[in-house]
């Protein structure tokens, strides 16, 4: 069995090498994949290039030039997004759009006091309405608490109950507007509330809403999961969104992650949603500070986009 596994792995890696070789040539002219074909679509998060809601239409067109199928908009302030310009760019390019949450200190569904919980719900509802106007079906991220909130202990039952109640409420709203909230576990250095897929599954199952499902990110899984492929399989149909990047936040397909096992697990569960590159560079200072990106992990943001897309295309996902 081990020999067969090694052969499968070598064949997989060989196909990736071939795809990467041709991908860099064809990326600029590649056409977005038809979402009706029942396979994953490949996207890029705008945080690779910007930490602002302004100018989002520019990133839609840039993603299309690279050949992506999906653009993921990181939404800082839903009211600051130029909806007409973004909608026009989406119509022109044919790209699918997803949204990514930005949970700041004042947006906190697990807070002890009501004000940050209500602020979080208002933000999520406003972003859902934005997504509805743009044609999005997914709004992913750690909707439960601010990124970077650490309190020197694990979560409490009271915080869990607040998350269930708040997410059930906004999940109903999202579902009514055609959006699925996809909850992302983060690593222990970014949150204490939700770190592993098993806990995300438990939370989603308790919320029990079609408007709330799971998303996973290879960076966080590489830190927290004993077996990332098993975590993917455990999610099964609950997994509605996926972020791909290297173990160092660099290019998907590189680094120490066992990518062939990740891709095989996604195929095994029939994953046919978006797989989005979420990587960061030090030139985007606000994001670099939040994500502790102190050096050039790759030559440039465009290299991450081009080479990451080539890898994902070659993976056969």
Give an overview of the whole structure.
With 317 residues, the chain is of the alpha/beta class. It has a single domain (2-314), classed as Divalent-metal-dependent TIM barrel enzymes (TIM Barrel). Helix content is 46%, strand content 13%. It contains eleven helices and eight strands. Helix 2 links the parallel strand 1 (41-45) and strand 2 (70-75). It starts with a helix and ends with a helix. The model is unreliable at 1-8 and 17-31 (pLDDT under 50).
What characteristics describe this protein?
TIM Barrel, globular, alpha/beta, 317 residues, eight-stranded parallel β-barrel, disordered N terminus
Brief characterization of the structure:
With 317 residues, this protein is an alpha/beta fold.
Structural class: alpha/beta
**If you average the pLDDT, what whole number results?**
90
Order of helices and strands: HEHEHEHEHEHEHHEHEHH
The percent range for strand residues is: 5-15%
CATH superfamily: Divalent-metal-dependent TIM barrel enzymes
Looking at the overall shape, the CATH architecture is: Alpha-Beta Barrel
Give me the number of helical elements: 11
What spatial form do the alpha-carbon principal axes imply? globular
Helix content: 40-55%
How far apart, in Å, are the first and last alpha carbons?
Answer: 24 Å
CATH class: Alpha Beta
Instruction: Work out the count of structural domains.
Output: 1
Low-confidence stretches: 1-8, 17-31
The total beta strand count reads 8
Rg, rounded, reads 19 Å
